[in-house]
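Input (structure):
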């Protein structure tokens, strides 16, 4: 089959599934459609990812408007690795509410339609070769995921939704200004307006672009897409949205939504570096924002008393690590790609476990949850171990990626960066570790109000044990094929070992 077919199929199937959710199905049937439909999208997109993974430089479709290379393939792979288990987990999560009569058929239909719509738009962001289409995809994900936040209509969820809409819409508008500036920079290239914003054309003619306009455009793009990615100081929407959204949505937010916004910045980084006579200035912007995000998140982690807000601020820290790694370049860029992989495994696991434990205890207040290793296995075990993985405990893959970022900074003798990086990691480590110990073994906390919500079925063990095994194994042994994909993705954004 022609490889480009899979790009069309990956975009069309979730859109068709979104229409299928309009059928009058029961809530349980909608959730089955959600799980099997998401798995079907993964099966449709994987052949293209595997082809690129196997060595194909790129797959092009729609006369160059759709394109998949190693960087895109890595992000599509991570997207599917989060969406599929999140869809499976959604059946369990909302199944508890269906049994209690708290999740109606209308709510299930809206949730499933928005879910598939968001999946289609995130895939569009990763497959688009046109900066304008990429921007459209990011804006569409903002509108669709906003309503996923308030699946449960409470005062807190509505406030979080409006805060998310307001901040991210302003951010995306700023990014649009950046795209206009880059479009203006192409006026002397002779390219037709219809193809001026194709990323491949921009890279091929970067020597003819106006450097001042590209540099200004890149700064607008960093601020705009950085707001959606959760980089400090534009991160204020993130803890509210993560804490109020249903846990399957929180998992997608941390594992996919933030990555897709950061991906847009990564796409434009080689362009900004290539047209500038001052090589390294764009990377310096990412280094500064990465360190700031880590320091801000580390400080706020110390004060968190809500489990899901703790995980949300951890996402800000990890996005900071990724930005820092890419900003350092070379080995740092490879470490950033590896860190994306580890974060996409660990953070959804944390939200799955937090959601189930929250249902069992009736709260996410850390002062009222404890002893979960004994009270709610395997979810309690998964929660504690996911928190340990997120703070870089050896031998997890996040320990390896953070160590490689440190090595990259030391090799460049960026001693201020090394000091601030280690300080942020140390504070975050202490802040999360003390919470993990109390969550796992504090016997003074009250028992769960609804123990049946944390029942240990086969799906529970699969959703918790599999990512923990992968996190540990990849920290000890990184398969050669996966390492090559990570390296090729890093080289696109300027990494070279």
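Output (sequence):
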């Amino acid at each position: 089959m022609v490889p480009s077919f899979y790009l069309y199929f990956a975009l069309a199937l979730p859109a068709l599934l979104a229409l299928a959710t309009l059928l009058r199905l029961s809530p349980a049937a909608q959730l089955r459609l959600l799980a099997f439909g998401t798995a079907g999208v993964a099966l449709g997109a994987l052949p293209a990812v595997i082809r690129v993974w196997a060595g194909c430089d790129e797959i092009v479709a729609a006369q160059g408007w759709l394109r998949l290379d190693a960087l895109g393939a890595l992000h599509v792979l991570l997207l599917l690795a989060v969406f599929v288990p999140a869809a499976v987990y959604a059946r369990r999560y909302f199944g508890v509410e269906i049994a209690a009569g708290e999740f109606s058929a209308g709510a299930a239909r809206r949730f499933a339609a928005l879910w598939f719509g968001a999946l289609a738009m995130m895939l569009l962001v990763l497959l688009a070769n046109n900066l304008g289409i990429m921007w459209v995809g990011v804006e569409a994900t903002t509108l669709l995921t906003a309503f996923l936040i308030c699946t449960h209509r409470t005062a807190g969820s509505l406030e979080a939704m409006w805060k998310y809409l307001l901040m991210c819409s302003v951010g995306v508008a700023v990014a649009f200004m950046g795209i206009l500036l880059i479009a203006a920079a192409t006026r002397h290239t002779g390219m037709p307006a219809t193809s001026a914003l194709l990323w491949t054309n921009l890279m091929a003619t970067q020597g003819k672009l106006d450097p001042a306009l590209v540099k200004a455009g890149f700064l607008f793009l960093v601020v705009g897409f950085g707001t959606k990615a959760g980089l400090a100081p534009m991160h204020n929407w993130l803890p509210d949205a993560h804490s109020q959204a249903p846990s399957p949505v929180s998992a997608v937010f941390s594992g996919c939504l933030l990555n897709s916004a950061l991906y847009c910045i990564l796409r434009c980084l080689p362009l900004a570096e290539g047209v500038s006579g001052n090589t390294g200035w764009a990377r310096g912007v990412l280094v500064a924002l990465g360190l700031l995000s880590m320091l801000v998140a580390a400080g706020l982690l110390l004060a968190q008393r809500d489990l899901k807000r703790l995980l949300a601020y951890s996402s800000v820290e990890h996005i900071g690590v990724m930005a820092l790694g890419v900003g350092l370049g070379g080995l740092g860029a490879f470490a950033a790609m590896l860190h994306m992989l580890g974060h996409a495994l660990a953070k959804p696991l944390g939200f799955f476990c937090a959601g189930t434990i929250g249902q069992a205890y009736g709260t996410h207040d850390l002062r009222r949850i404890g002893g979960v290793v004994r009270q709610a296995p395997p979810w309690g075990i998964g929660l504690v171990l996911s928190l340990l993985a997120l703070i870089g405990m050896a031998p997890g893959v996040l320990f390896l990626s953070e160590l490689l970022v440190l090595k990259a900074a030391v090799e460049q003798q960026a001693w201020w960066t090394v000091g601030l990086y280690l300080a942020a990691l140390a504070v975050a480590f202490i802040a999360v570790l003390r919470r993990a110990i109390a969550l796992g073994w504090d016997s003074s906390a009250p028992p769960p109000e609804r123990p049946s919500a944390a029942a240990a079925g086969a799906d529970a063990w699969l959703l918790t044990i599999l990512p923990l095994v992968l996190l540990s194994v990849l920290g000890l042994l990184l398969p050669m094929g996966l390492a090559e994909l990570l390296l090729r993705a890093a080289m696109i954004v300027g990494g070279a070992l």
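Notes: The CA atoms of residues 346 and 390 lie 7 Å apart. The radius of gyration is 22 Å.
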